[in-house]
Amino acid sequence: MFLEKIKSHLGPKIKRNESQLFGDNLELSKENEKCEMFSEVFEIIDKKVGDCDFDFRKLKEVYFSWFKCLKMKAGTSAGFTGLAEYVILRAILLYFEQKLKIKFEIKSKSNDTRFFASNDKHVLITHSISMDKNMERAVDKELGKKIEWNQGARGLKPDIIIFKESHEHYNPKAIIQIKVYAVSPSSIRKEINNVKKMTEIRNKKPLLVIIFFSRLSNENKEKLKEKFDYVITPESLNFGKMLQDVYNQLL
Description:
Blueprint: H1 2-10, H2 19-22, H3 30-35, H4 39-51, H5 56-74, H6 83-100, E1 104-110, E2 113-118, E3 123-127, H7 133-143, E4 146-147, E5 160-166, E6 169-179, H8 185-198, E7 207-212, H9 218-225, E8 230-232, H10 239-250
Parallel strand pairs: 4-6, 6-7, 7-8
Antiparallel strand pairs: 1-2, 2-3, 3-5, 5-6
Helix pairs in contact: 1-4, 4-6, 5-6
């Protein structure tokens, strides 16, 4: 009943290969078997993301439609977090699969943490993962390569990092932070300080992106523009341009 109501709200069920959710080379595991009961929900959300044609205004509506439905079903949206990041992550994965003619596979950092690597090992994408020694070991074990990251930023977990492989090393090409609501001046200062740490990577400057699902004051937007290459808000039309810019970095 729950799935049927989600389907009626978000659209018809779309058949998709399991590889689109879990990667072509990932063996069916006990964890994936447990995911089967929710696979239809993810299929529907992924279909809606694909239908947005990489328009951030439409992606935002996918999130807020879900947000409103949660309130109707659960009274509030308390305890349900992460969908905004999921929507952006899936849009990014789909965009680069289409543009670069690749498929992303899931790789393991630990029993509870995964990251994405393209089947040609050219692109690596992380979602809220610490760039620590364990990540270095995981990349070496799974892909036989090194990963570049600033020692002073090891404790940080950027929402999304996009890496490009070059000479057996993965170098960050874009760092993306995602915010559902507008943030306070102190939070903006914290974001700017974190950016300073994350960009000190052997003189390699990745594109810096911050995405807001809600409107941002002009004052805060201008402050962020001093440090971020892209400040994406609901009224802006630069999400597609940002993706194209990252794509150019990956060529």
